[in-house]
Amino acid sequence: MIASASRLRRSLRASTFDASCNAAMIGFGETYFPAFALLLGATPFQVGVLATAPVLAGAVFQLVSTVAAHRLGDRRWVIGSALLQAATFVPVVWLARSARGGYPWLLALVCFYWMLNLGISPAWNAWMGRMIPPAIRSRYFGRRNVSVHSVIFLSLITGGFLIDAAQRTGLGASVGFATAFALAAVSRLASTWFLTRQHDPGVAGTRPNRHPIGTLLADFSGRSYGRLILLVVLINGSVNISAAYFTPFMLHGLELSYARFTILNGTIVVARVLSSSYWGEIARSYGNRRALQVSAVLLIPLSSLWIVSANFAYLIGLQLLAGFAWAGFELSTFLNLFDCTDDRNRAQVLSIYNLLNGVLIVTGSLFGGSVLRALGDGGYVYIFLLSSAGRALTVMALAKGVGVRRRRHEHSFGNVFTRVVTLRPGQGADTRPVVMEESRRRRNARGRSRPG
């Protein structure tokens, strides 16, 4: 028993270091893919494709990655995928040498990167579900996420100022990008090493029975989770009419320096972290459904407010507001998804959500990109207004009947765990819920141990 407890402590410590190193990879690496594409000569439309199409590729790949993980083993699949993810940055660093004309290669590499990024999730969730005892999950993930968000902020700021300094000193921004991407590769390699330091206790009993995927899709619109997913993916589709083009707008439209671009992205990260616990209290007091409705309304004007002023202090304030709104929307979305699903269908419902979300994100970005291609730089005003209009129509049509009405056993801020998967300009850290399914044998044993 002592040896087992000691092994668990070592694994949890290694998991925290793994998460921190992975966060450094996000801050140094994928955050700057769109800005790097502009340096390679990409058009705003191509930047929008780069920001969204790889997410769809990853969501599709996630549906089949569980088969490969089952054959190789969850732990081996996660470690191998992480190693390949680190290797993805090597050709990206090489692309920085030419600094022009490498967009098609960058798009292919980012698609591969995102396939690995989302393909890891199901196996990692299953592995962590076996390794981390339920009694300590809330406390452990709370502390783990503090470290993750701190490292994301520090690496994001460091990477941006490296790029800015390289440009200002005459070395060229390409040198700064190459350095940041090299640091991202090293960070993911370190993360992979810490993954190897975590043990896998093996599958305890049988896996829970799941609903056939066809059953979930057949009655999708009639289920509470179907209506919730429809609301969220339509809002995300509307958001990406403009959000996919924030990077070219800030760097080319507003002519911000890399340093100011980085400060704006860092501001929304801080705002989201500081306001998450506040939204947890709102959800606890008024219900998860009400928190979702309020936060969705707050999202409506955000894109339109970008055309009000180019004053940097104003943009800082706008990012603080955006961070507050996005923290509430994301948290309440996950709380409502957990309320609408059970252990048997939750992982599959989230896979459906990821797929539909990827499709709508790409659809929104292609629509916004088409407007930009037709109108040029003047099109930014229109896509920002169209984005707000799409959000407003979605909220008015769907928000009232979404989710489930408050009930006694509603999920709370403390028992839904998340992990950061990326950073998006204008939205901050994009997270996904950690779904840890308990085996049927363990649930039955727990049920028999309850009095009465």
- Please give the domain count: 2
Q: What is the straight-line distance between the termini?
A: 30 Å
Proportion in β-strands? under 5%
Helix residue percentage: over 70%
Q: What is the radius of gyration? A: 21 Å
Q: Architecture of the largest domain, according to CATH?
A: Up-down Bundle
Largest sheet geometry: 2 strands, antiparallel
Sequence stretches where pLDDT stays below 50 over 5 or more residues: 439-452
Strands of the largest sheet, in order across it? 1-2
Would you list the SSEs in sequence order as H and E? HHHHHHHHHHHHHHHHEEH
The count of DSSP E runs of length 2 or more, i.e. the number of strands, is 2
CATH classification class of the largest domain: Mainly Alpha
The chain-level mean pLDDT equals 84
Secondary-structure content class: mainly alpha
- The CATH topology of the largest domain turns out to be Growth Hormone, Chain: A
| Structural shape | globular
* Number of separate helices: 17
If you had to describe this structure to a student in words, what would you say it looks like?
74% of the residues lie in helices and 3% in strands. The protein is mainly α and 452 residues long. The protein folds into 2 domains: 8-200, MFS general substrate transporter like domains (Growth Hormone, Chain: A, Up-down Bundle); 213-435, Growth Hormone, Chain: A (Up-down Bundle), CATH 1.20.1250.20. Helix 1 packs antiparallel against helix 8 (173-196), helix 10 packs antiparallel against helix 14 and helix 13 (288-299) runs antiparallel to helix 16 (379-398). The relative contact order is 0.15. The model is unreliable at 439-452 (pLDDT under 50).
